[in-house]
Amino acid sequence: MPKNQPDWPEPIVRVQSLSENCIDSIPEKYIKPCTDRPSMSSEDANFNCNMNIPIIDLGGLWGADQHVTDSILRQISEACREWGFFQITSHGVRPDLMDKARETWRQFFHLPMDIKQQYANSPKTYEGYGSRLGVEKGAILDWSDYYFLHYLPFSLKDYNKWPALPPSSREVIDEYGGELVKLCGKLMKVLSINLGLDERRLQKGFGGEDIGACLRVNFYPRCPRPELTLGLSSHSDPGGLTMLLPDDQVPGLQVRKCDNWITVKPQPHAFIVNIGDQIQVLSNAMYKSVEHRVIVNSDKERVSLAFFYNPKSDIPIEPLKELITQDKPALYPPMTFDEYRLFIRMRGPRGKSQVESLKSPR
Fold first, then answer.
1. Contacts with 226 (C-beta within 8 Å, 6 or more apart), sequence order
2. Where are the beta strands (DSSP E) in 19-64?
3. Is the pTM of this model over 0.90?
């Protein structure tokens, strides 16, 4: 953050409070331009109904049957190259822990406002309870509140910045984060193998074991005019790998496929996995991060947990040498994740324009 920009440019308004007080309209600063609003046409709805991101059962991934392993590897490879998104089942994380994590956070967002305000965040770190991204004054805002916290590296992990309520929330968050770090490590091996590399190569490109991990919990309150706004504007994730625990009762995530927005149909106790910008860079765009956004609902709130598995923040990230050829030179210059993250934070979510603007001139 610039030194003269210590706080948000305008007073923070909690969207949850707006939701409780808005009957049939929403404030103008949440109304998106017509081109960015969710489409409500029946033609798009019909197209959407017949599509979903790939669903992949990881059950036999490292089992004795090589044919099963090869099939799972192939499914993940195709999903990374064609979609940038997929759902995984039989992933090894206990269903009861997934449910407990989501419900713990739902309870937090329903605590009295004065308790939540003790964790209010600032643009300097984003850590804590927040309601906007980017520091542009007068920006059109998203219809959501969130909580952001660091899990790794240990130097940034501060339990005092995690909610103390509801009771046992810190223990639940800690256990959940540990399970997700292990699962991401397994997926990084799969992605490396599918690129024709040593299974540790992507992890090494991230800085080895000394990586970053953080959690953003999204709370999307009910909205009286969902056709005018978005819960989260179109963007690709700036980090490495994202593991989303969605609200499997209330769909809301939309993924761009060609020129259409596909509303993801969450499977019970599945994680939605997506490629972030840093893996797009490391893979020299063989894997692509994909635009996604969130729509809101007039009848129901939604809670989702996005766990980000990121490179070490201060090492240059650039296309891996093994993936650079005469026919496909390096598409991106080196940039640390810290530098990239600051670039994003200043501008807020803007589709794929962030990572595309970094491409080396040809």
1. 38, 295, 296, 297, 298
2. 55-57
3. yes
